[in-house]
Amino acid sequence: MKQSILGKSGLRVYPIGLGTNAVGGHNLYPNLDENAGKDLVRQSIQHGGNFLDTAFIYGEGRSEELIGEVLQEFKRSDVIVATKAAHKKQGNDYVFDNSPSFLTKAVDDALKRLQTDYIDLFYIHFPDESTPKDEAVQALAELKKAGKIRAIGVSNFSLEQLKEANKNGDVDVYQGEYNLLNREAEETIFPYVTEHRISFVPYFPLVSGLLAGKYDKETTFPSGDLRNSQKHFQGETFKENIDKVNKLQPIADNHGADIAHVVLAWYLMRPEIDVVIPGAKRAEQWIANKKAADIQLTDTEKAYISDLFS
């Protein structure tokens, strides 16, 4: 199977990963079927995927537990597992904590839930307001030396926070929002990660299905749906986005693929991006997304897509 190397980490991953916030993420999605979630993870591995992206906050550890159960069915070295932590319970709410003591305990707790003795990639999920970021990453560097993690990541950090975190060159992967409707990272984060051989992993790649060609201008969402509060889904902006997405259909037809696959392929054409992690709730969704790894967009197609969403 085609594989990419995540930055300077040495981790070899299939370019289409699996975002698992719908695997046990009961606090994020209603009425999740845990057996379906486990089957999604299982089938993604059986069909050639080897990169799973999870986090403590996906179900407050439940996603990690379900993934840990499925991992027992496979050779551990065949699967690359990334997880994240920063959320600390304070009363009925969560606060972010990047302190070395918190991160050390978070790694140990995640190892237990995942039923493994090492985590391939561990991210600081969100920055806190007080911990020096180089001290936080130094704690992870110590855990890396101890063999508990193999690579270090940070997520949702500003450029200045990333620079501080990478003071000693220990950051391997950066995860942040990036998609055709939000390309701010091209100006802020991409130049730095390119210079320092840090792999950029984009989240929210299909913007809740908007960039997958799933909706039309008449689509509405039920009360309480998160999309009702997202700017890309508002009024005329939503209709304009639908028009742009529909213009990708000829390119998708040219490659015998869906619009979603063309969008994911466009991300993978960027030298900063080695892997994408679209979410899924059903195994067939991830299997369909695999097509993106084999699409080779022409220079003309790449430029057209870039200009369309500029």
UniProtKB/TrEMBL annotation:
<dbReference type="InterPro" id="IPR050523">
    <property type="entry name" value="AKR_Detox_Biosynth"/>
</dbReference>
<feature type="domain" description="NADP-dependent oxidoreductase">
    <location>
        <begin position="15"/>
        <end position="306"/>
    </location>
</feature>
<dbReference type="GO" id="GO:0016491">
    <property type="term" value="F:oxidoreductase activity"/>
</dbReference>
<protein>
    <submittedName>
        <fullName>Oxidoreductase</fullName>
    </submittedName>
</protein>
<dbReference type="InterPro" id="IPR018170">
    <property type="entry name" value="Aldo/ket_reductase_CS"/>
</dbReference>
<dbReference type="InterPro" id="IPR036812">
    <property type="entry name" value="NAD(P)_OxRdtase_dom_sf"/>
</dbReference>
<dbReference type="InterPro" id="IPR020471">
    <property type="entry name" value="AKR"/>
</dbReference>
<dbReference type="Pfam" id="PF00248">
    <property type="entry name" value="Aldo_ket_red"/>
</dbReference>
<dbReference type="InterPro" id="IPR023210">
    <property type="entry name" value="NADP_OxRdtase_dom"/>
</dbReference>
<dbReference type="GO" id="GO:0005829">
    <property type="term" value="C:cytosol"/>
</dbReference>
<keyword id="KW-0560">Oxidoreductase</keyword>
